[in-house]
């Protein structure tokens, strides 16, 4: 049995090639592709390297040291688990390279981004979402990463508007003063970082950092802007664990210190965020899956279509792919009977347990098509398409979900889009009436003054 070296080299080479190809693609697509490469590098390169270097002994609540890999040896286990990952990443990279070549040969003027007309709507959406967040936090219904569903679905739905509004404002707001711009962006990023800590999820701050990169991509990159994005990403990732430890009680901190003591001190500050990039666990789930296929392709398509329909109209419970993955796929190799959680499956891993390597190819190509559609939506001229692009940007489906999880998020995003559209109509109607009132006020004043002047003149003459 070969060691994991060749698989790690293949995975690393695919990701490096992906970054190089992304450099030849202009605009927002480049941002998403580089972000994907970083995300997958943390999941499929950084975590395996930590396991191979430290060889940690599995212990309670340590999801980095996977007992299934440790049982057969980290060298052999990682080599086996990364084989479909390497295949999937190279298929994805091949698609990106082909698109980069096509884009270079068919250069055209970059599409104009959405204008600042959306800013009032996004501000209203953000305010409404902040109210939802505040009520959720006060009532203790914020939830945590991996929860199956929110304890208050309505508040959870309204709170999603804050993330969509924050990302939209970061991308589209255009104050005339540079200092005002920095203050607004800093405030938005700070709020998203605090919400990241409150819900114990990396998604809000990662989405905010992505929005900053998208903003710069729309207006051209400079060295200073690259530094800004790098600093925001490092602070968000590095500060996540520190802020998380502040809100933990003393006994939890003691448990975390005992759990992390098996790792070198130089790695311990990064373990809290590294644990959030858990696609290697999902790849291990796929390798140990006993019954194959997990679902037939027809069942996958059926569940995907049902995910786009609201449950009230469907009349039946829809599949929650993250929960089903935890119970059925991971549950085939680990005891999940006492755990109720929703897990990230990943396009490669979901495709592998559905249709083997053919499923892997279909899964990664679906993600690439979804990425291109998201880019087009962000550059659209209508609030509905822009809101859909923002909702997808605010979710991790381009990084850690397969077809089923992506369709679930898109279905929920469509409901958010409808609410954003309603808010937009109200805001536009209010602005129209306000502008009309402002325009008519001077005319009425002039008319009255003119009449009075004319009458006074006639009287005196």
Automatic annotation (TrEMBL):
Species assigned in the record: Rhodococcus indonesiensis
Name used for this protein in its record: O-antigen polysaccharide polymerase Wzy
Transmembrane segments: 6-25, 32-50, 81-102, 114-134, 154-173, 180-198, 226-243, 352-375, 382-399
Top-rank taxon, per record: Bacteria
Record's keyword terms, sorted: Membrane, Transmembrane, Transmembrane helix
